[in-house]
Amino acid sequence: MRLLLVEDEKRMAEALCELLRLEKYDVDHYADGPEGLDAALTGAYDLIILDVMLPGKNGFDIAREVRKNGVKTPVLMLTAKSEVDDKVTGLDCGADDYLTKPFMTKELLARLRALGRRNRNTVDGALRYGDLTLNKENATLTCGENSVRLSEKEAHILEYLIANQGQILTREQLAVKIWGYDSDTEYNNVEVYMSFTRKKLNFVKSKAEIKAVRGIGYELRYGHV
Ligand code: CA
């Protein structure tokens, strides 16, 4: 399950990342409001943990914009204070649940499990990028009338590229993300799977393309000539 954590307090974020990874969540962390919002808007996550006080943009505004853009990912707000006002504001702007700091990790994990179950029932599990729709449930890639099944690795690669659109991802980042920290994946494995994934994009006649940036890595682009 992919989880987005937006939290600016360094030690809190580190502890949460470690805890959540131990629980087998695939965690991406941002410490800054606008970056967190961009990540949330990709729809690439199954769950979002959102702190309220953040640099650049607060958690309430992020939740509001996420919902305004039709992203239905369940949001758990972390409120620093126990005031009722904060909780009400959080729920009003589209968060699904809240937890007051400091909290017990057991409590956090229980809330996340509950939200995760809700997610499976209510979200169609689809990611969108340009003319593409990637259905994560059945790993089907669709563009207009065309669709094709992706292998598990191809689906992960595309999901990761969509989540990080506009950024160049290095082969190292991709290898770690797709094959895991412990694997001894050769970087040319990444290249091989990139070319499989590209073929699928061509097959459905998408205008999205995976650009190789020489000596650095890969980037997903849309509609460039
Ligand atoms: Ca904070």
Q: How is the secondary structure organized here?
A:
Elements (H helix, E strand, L loop, with lengths): L1 E5 L3 H13 L3 E5 L2 H9 L5 E5 L7 H10 L6 E5 L4 H9 L4 E4 L4 H18 L3 E4 L2 E4 L4 E4 L2 E4 L2 H12 L5 E2 H9 L7 H17 L4 E6 L3 E6 L3
Parallel strand pairs: 1-2, 1-3, 3-4, 4-5
Antiparallel strand pairs: 6-7, 7-8, 8-9, 10-12, 11-12
This protein binds calcium ion (CA).
Describe the protein in words.
The protein is of the alpha/beta class and 225 residues long. It has 8 helices and 12 strands. It has helices at 10-22, 33-41, 59-68, 84-92, 105-122, 152-163, 171-179, 187-203; strands at residues 2-6, 26-30, 47-51, 75-79, 97-100, 126-129, 132-135, 140-143, 146-149, 169-170, 208-213, 217-222. The chain has a 5-stranded parallel β-sheet with strand order 2-1-3-4-5, with helices on both faces. It has a 4-stranded antiparallel β-sheet with strand order 6-7-8-9, covered by helices on one side. Helix 2 (33-41) runs parallel beside helix 3, helix 6 (152-163) packs across helix 8 and helix 7 (171-179) crosses helix 8. The mean pLDDT is 86. Calcium ion binds at residues 8-9, 51, 53-54.
